[in-house]
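Chapter review: from sequence to fold.
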Amino acid sequence: MAAAGEQRPAGDSTALYVDSSESDINNNSNNMILVPRETALQALNTIVQVHFEKTLEKKRAVDIQKKELWKLFQVLFIFLAILFGGVVQSTRLECKHWWMPVSLCAMGHLIFYVAMAQTLRCINGFKYQRRCHKLTLGLATENLKRLKLINADSVPESEYEVHYQEPSEGYFNKFKRKWALCFLFLVITFGFMVSATVTLLCAG
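The token string follows.
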């Protein structure tokens, strides 16, 4: 404290600045929560185990939905084969009846698209969740490796805190590409069926 009558230069805030910094340091030190190293290791091991199991769970869910999607494609191919075979072998269908097989084909494609969209939505959702768990698992594994190298009885709480990770926005581009490919496949098969039907019925 300055002596009585001592003049402090105007604008001199050095003493105030030093006191403020020391106060912040003391507050940060007091707010830092220390936990036993073994407790932190157990917590990280639990996090790693949970996200590893979740990753496997989502992988199995994706595989199941992929099998369902493949079954949908098989049903579509069988339907188109039966429809095309009926048009080829029919003796009653004429050129003016072209709209009937085309309408059946359009209805089949529409039903398939609705079922495919639902299945793809499930696949993409499970893949996104699996990616999140994989990223979180990787971060937790890195923190666990780093914590094992620390030779101390206590560590800051931040050393074993692992927040749920999410992929970047670019990760969703792969989902858009799949939607585009499936939609293109449906357009091509529908166009082929329409052109083949009209050609067979109206060629003569």
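Two observations follow directly from the output. The radius of gyration is 33 Å. The first strand starts at residue 34 and ends at 36.
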